[in-house]
Amino acid sequence: TGEDLYPLFKKRLAELPPDFQPLTRRIYDAFGLCPATGDGHLAEYTHWTHDPQTKPWQRYGLKLYDWDGAAKERDRMWREIEAMVAGEELRGRLRSGSGERAVPIIDAILQNRNQYELAVDIPNEGYIPNLPEGAIVEVPAVASGFGVRGVGVGPLPEGIAALCRAQITVASLAVDAAILGSKELLLQALLVDPMVNDIDQARAMMEEMLRLQAPYLPQRLLTAGS
Question: Considering only CA atoms, which of 35, 43, 36, 38 is closest in space to residue 64?
Fold first, then answer.
């Protein structure tokens, strides 16, 4: 309807417990728009939460990644997949669906449904004019026989656009590094990332990951560049 729901949103948010998404709320207060990813995902892209000296993630109630738990869940998932391949009844996501929108969007294209989607990830074609053309952006869209066409949302507030442009640059440099086999560009991708605050640590991390991931990477990436 075009009605501004932010006043109601702000009122409802204030009624929630103070420990509900505290990082999201502080960023909302600072920038005037609310990031919708939740604190855990948001903290991956913001440089205000990772200082090992002051440990600000504890202030926001964030937990570090559970590597052991993730490994156990991955093993459980593969056991489940292997059992279903062997003939057991379909269960989990294969039975109930993942909740992702890929299949409904494909169906909307095939059936020319002109189906409105709240959010899709597509190349920017002027949908957000103060982000680079061709960068992948998440915007509303319509799925039809013509494919997926985004809906323009206009420019982002400059402070928010600047945060987005930093992530776009990180991704662009990383892709160029992979294509060209350039360690120099790979290091630049790390140094541009706002989560990285030490050149020597970045270089050491790069060398360690290249060594550990060597079986999966072109050999030229290990030697090209500087």
Answer: 43
